[in-house]
Amino acid sequence: MTEVTFSSTTALLDALASVELPTLGHFLDEGFCDPGIRPVGSVARMAGPAVTVDLTEPDAIAVNQALLRLEPGSVLVIRMHGGRHASVGAVTAAAAIARGAAGIVVDGPVTDVATLRETARSLPVFARGTTPLTTKRLGTAVDGVGVPVRIGGVTVSTGDIVAGDENGVVAIAPGTVDPAVFREALRSDLAEPELIDRICSGSPLEELLAVQPPISRKAVS
Fold first, then answer.
1. Which pLDDT does position 217 carry in this prediction?
2. What is the second-level CATH architecture of the domain 9-172?
3. In the predicted model, what is the mean pLDDT of residues 15-42?
4. Whether the Cβ atoms of residue 87 and residue 80 lie closer than 8 Å to each other
5. Chain centroid offset of residue 65 CA
6. Per the CB 3.0–4.6 Å rule, which of 111, 128, 151, 194 could disulfide with 89?
7. What is residue 95's predicted lDDT score, i.e. its pLDDT?
8. Residue 193 neighbours by CB under 8 Å, 6+ apart
């Protein structure tokens, strides 16, 4: 049987917009960045196609070239090798907003944290921490613009869909996830408020919580 998947970016973005990321985490295991990639400030939900940068050196020129590749709704995704230099700060964030970016994800630190927190609703930023040590105008890592990067244990290529919220970040390549996963996640989202209400109203937990794994279809076939 041929596997059914989302073949277009638009369809995948629409599906992601319909479900909560933690609910999706009940049904998917791959694509979730490790918890070290955290939101900076009170971020809005974001999702968009990645524009990647692999910073093998702390090169601000490479970051600036990637900024110019951003389209409205894109997510700038940066791997900072060595993890010491901040590749994103107030100027980078302002430029990303000017390009209409949906957000920024950095496997490494950022700087100008107060500014990033102020703009977190219009430009969500996710990173491993903060530092005053920043990139330099070197021009030595421009070959890393647009190449696949490893972010929080997940490989992300330019064009993959990157989504994030206050819980963390997930990356999904178009054509890799069955739409049924999103349908199941949406059903779970819709059922959750009633479940929580019943728990809070004192209904027996034995009737509400799953305490046994589901019966495998293979086991009964």
1. 44
2. 3-Layer(bba) Sandwich (3.50)
3. 93
4. yes
5. 22
6. 111
7. 98
8. none
